[in-house]
Each structure stands twice: as C-alpha cells, then as structure tokens.
Design a protein that fits this description.
The complex is a heterodimer. By secondary structure, chain A is mostly beta strands. In chain A, strands 2, 5, 6, 10, 11 and 12 form a six-stranded mixed sheet that branches. Chain A has a four-stranded antiparallel sheet with strand order 3-9-8-7, with no helix packed on it. In chain A, strands 1-4 form a two-stranded antiparallel ribbon. Helices cover 0% and strands 53% of the residues of chain A. Chain A is built from no helices and twelve strands. Chain A is globular. Chain B is mainly β. In chain B, strands 2, 4, 5, 6, 9, 10 and 11 form a seven-stranded mixed sheet that branches. A four-stranded antiparallel sheet of chain B has the order 1-3-8-7, with no helix packed on it. Classes of the chains: A mainly beta, B mainly beta. At the A-B interface, strand 5, strand 6, strand 10 and strand 11 of A face strand 4, strand 5, strand 9 and strand 10 of B.
Chain lengths: 118, 116
C-alpha cells in the first residue's frame, strides 16, 4: 500500500525566511511519481511539480526548490525568501505505476498549513 | 486549473436530499478522477472514470454514492440521501491520457457540499 506522510501540520514563518516542507512516502513500486500541490485560501488546487522516481535531480523554479532523495523516501519542498502570498496548504502526493502504466490515482499527504507573516 | 470546470462551486443540501456534482474536463481529456477532501484533511481518491466506463471505484463509499462519465456531457458524482458526514469539498481532475511521464491531472476548483 502507498502512503504519504507530511509530519508538519502547521508552520509559521516571517516574511523573507526560508521554509522547508517535509514529505516522506512509502511505496512498493519501483516506478512512481511524486507531486506537490498548493491550496491557497480560495480553495483550488494548484499544481507545482511532478517528479518521476528515476529522476533524482533536484529542481529549482524561482523561489521554489525540491529535494528528492530516494534513499530516504523523501521529497522535500523549500521556499526561499517566503512571501505572504505563499500562505496556503501544501500537499505532497504519490502516484504509483502498475504494469507499466499509471492512471492518476493520487495518494495525498495530510497537508502542511504554511502561514507567512508580514 | 481553470480548464476543468466544476459546478456548482457551493452546494447546500438538507439531510436526505440528493446532491449532484458536475465536472466538465478540459477539452480533449477523456480521463476523470474524483477526490474528496473532508474538513482539515488531505484529499482522498474516490473514483476514476473514462468515457462511459468506471475504471476504479475503490475509494467510493459502498452505498449512496455513484459516478458516471457519459459519452456526451460532464461527469456526474451523485450522492443520494446525504448525511452531515458527506459535507466536504469534492474535487474533479482530468487528464488527456494515463498520467505518468509528461502528464499530470489538472484539478477543478472543487464543489463545497454542506449538508444541513
């Protein structure tokens, strides 16, 4: 069975601080996909990144960066120089590939509420 | 993603009534997924459909819940005889093909169901 754990329920930081959101996953598959989504107060889900299990390169996109470590089954997300607009709930998710295909069945973590204070 | 349209955005139903949630996938997308987000929880997979077929309904409650994705028209998630515990945000996602490399499912804005 697959499982995603986001141990940090809530994080509060002051603007311009760096913040890292942790994500640990469990899966038996050798091929899988990891995602991060942002859910702002308005409620929609905003896709941030997808990473497949064969690509352990870290990625940077502006103030966002992701650290994928297969050895520790972690896919952590760092926001550099946080801003008030980053305040949201952030979800890590896992999609397994079975039989060579995956069909979008995402397993989500419980989410981390990030509050950035001015 | 604004391309996946869900309506209504907010729905209030009295206990025992029926709730119908609609999802129009992005143009060209033939795969639809429904997820439920209970208050202060993460999203939980409910059902995966392709046009006219239910592929995986392992996350659907055994009773009162059903889903369809007809050849024409939106996907519908139907909840009969709603109870207070059905109050949640229901999200629909669509993708053009099996997700995996180079694809991801795009989410709608959700329907927030409140049962009073």
């Amino acid at each position: 069975a697959q499982k995603v754990t986001q141990a940090q329920t809530e994080i509060s930081v002051v603007e311009k601080e760096d913040v890292t959101l942790d994500c640990v996953y469990e899966t038996r598959d050798t091929t899988y996909y990891l995602f991060w989504y942002k859910q702002p107060p308005s409620g929609e889900l905003v896709f941030l990144i997808r990473r497949n299990s064969f690509d352990e390169q870290n990625e940077i996109s502006g103030r966002y960066s992701w650290n994928f470590q297969k050895s520790t089954s972690s896919f952590n997300f760092t926001i550099t120089a946080s801003q008030v607009v980053d305040s949201a709930v952030y979800f890590c998710a896992l999609s397994e590939a079975s039989g060579g295909t995956s069909y979008g069945k995402l397993t989500f973590g419980q989410g981390t509420i990030l509050t950035v204070h001015p | 993603n604004a391309g996946v349209m869900q309506n209504p955005r907010h729905l209030v139903r009295r206990r025992g009534q029926e709730a119908r949630l609609r999802c129009s996938p992005m143009k060209g997308h033939s795969h639809v997924y429904w997820y439920r987000q209970l208050p202060e929880e993460g999203l939980k997979f409910m059902v995966y459909l392709q046009k006219e077929n239910i592929i995986d309904e392992s996350g659907m409650p055994k009773e009162r819940f059903s889903a369809e994705f007809p050849k024409e028209g939106p996907s519908i998630l139907r909840i009969q005889q709603v109870v207070r515990g059905d109050s949640a945000a229901y999200f629909c996602a669509s993708s053009p093909r099996l997700t995996g490399a180079n694809t991801e499912a795009f989410f709608g804005q959700g329907t927030r169901l409140t049962v009073v």
